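Posting for a labmate who doesn't have an account.
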Amino acid sequence: MASWSFLTNHARVLVHIAGDPAARLRDIALTLSITERSAFRIVDDLEKAGYLEKQRNGRRTRYSIQAELPLIDPVASSPSIGEILALLVPVEALQMRNEGD
């Protein structure tokens, strides 16, 4: 098994949140084998870049992905976040999550 990944941790966090918009940072960190602090920083980066919006509901947070935004990639032809997520997350999972809003 390779010791590297085609997807950055930022992409992996985004994919995880696409599958579970109510995921806790602790769960994201455990699933992706990163620290909770790293998960926090990545979510913060994604929020500051406009890719995520957070909604607080009591002590829980629910995330919304701004799927229409283009990727930040100076080489690629800039597909949208939604187009990339459609390749990585089963469509049924995305539809079910969106209907739960």
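Reply:
Got it, the structure tokens are right above this. The CA atoms of residues 47 and 53 lie 6 Å apart.
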